[in-house]
Amino acid sequence: MVFDSNRRIRVLVVDDSATVRRMVTDALSTDPEIEVVGTAIDPYIAKDKILSLKPDVITLDLEMPRMDGLTFLRILMERHPIPVVIMSSLTQPGSAKALEALQVGAIEVLGKPGSAYSIGDLGPQLIQKIKAAAQARLRRPTAQVAEPPPPPPSAPAVPSAGAPPPLAPRPPTPLRPPSAPAHAPSAYTPQRVTIGAPIIKAPLIGGPPAGSRKLILIGASTGGTEAIREVLQRLPANLPPIAIVQHIPATFSRAFADRLNALCEMEVREAKDGDEFRPGLALVAPGNFHLLIQRVGARYTARVTTGPMVWHQRPAVDLLFKSAVDSAGPHVVAALLTGMGKDGADGLLELRQRGARTYAQDENSCVVYGMPKAAHDIGAAERMVPLDRMHEAILSGLAQVTD
Predict the structure, then answer these.
(1) CATH code for the domain defined by 9-134
(2) % of the chain exceeding 70 in pLDDT
């Protein structure tokens, strides 16, 4: 998507709650770069307003009458992709649905204002996510906006003059489906596991030698949940430990880690303070907490802390990267993936200066080319790598860093 930064970002708010619509509208109206051009109480009205108002970004509730937001999102991404910011409930089922929405093609996710958070708390985050979404790259097929399937017989249909014939929703399609690498560095084939099924990880075989100090660091923001998934699914389990920072709300990080654990060969879980980094394990920073690397004797351990925000983020990629400079320096392979802003670039540079292998995602494969661009501009990344080749870069880097 190419967005004209000389005009305001046009936003359509879709939510069945009048209170939430008003709160979101009021919050966005405080920023002079954003204009709320309309609201809709359900996908049927939203479809007509997308056609007439031509918004740049949509905020979308997932739990609505007549048609749920996830079904509408699938139709929208299939027929007329528009950057979407999901406003989801703070419950664990709500978190799972929000992550599924990211897989379908939503750009960002944020907890809905309610008992846990007020719009005053979420307003600045929402504004930031709207601006990130406006810069996102999306596929834009030349098809018309899909008409949602007819509402249930018990609900009155919303008239739409000249609307195209109803189209049934198609199966979900990721924003950028992973493509097979041109030449795989190993015979590993990722095993896909249905989320919700019991996950039993096989014993680690052929991992790093005892006492290895190698460590993998990954940081991302907008578009990163799917980018991280694509990278990890292509990696074998018998690797050095992995530390991950993804900018994500506190209520969604646990579900994000659980989803990765279900889909990836390695064990993935949310980090707790004092956790030991060990081969075959990837630890994800909890939302609203920083994740740092500490060297304790011959082991790496996780330090999970609050502390001030960095680049308006907590967790911050920069803090993760910089914490490993002294404790792991030349033994690190670090990758900075898609995201808005500059978080991670300075830390990546410090790692490179200490002998780490450092990579950043290339512009063409990024959802938002912000953080990787910042790394490129200051010389922090030794190589810019397409997303579908990042796993190869990581494996190559591991072969080059010292134990």
Answers:
(1) 3.40.50.2300
(2) 77
Provide the edge-to-edge strand list for the sheet that holds 332-336: 267-270, 281-284, 242-246, 215-220, 332-336, 357-361, 383-385
Whether the model clears a pTM of 0.85, i.e. scores above it, the answer is: no
Return the active site residues: 221, 247, 343
What residues does each domain of the chain span? 9-134, 215-400
Query: What pLDDT, on a 0 to 100 scale, did the predictor assign at position 177?
Result: 35
CB 90 within 8 A of CB 114: yes
pLDDT at 63: 87
Backbone angles phi, psi at 399, to 5 degrees: -75, -15
Residue 157 has pLDDT above 50, yes or no: no
Which distant-in-sequence residues (6+ apart) come within 8 Å of 400 by Cβ? 357
In this structure, of 24-38, 179-193, 335-349, 367-381, the range with the lowest mean pLDDT score is 179-193
CA angle 237, 226, 56 (to 5 degrees): 175
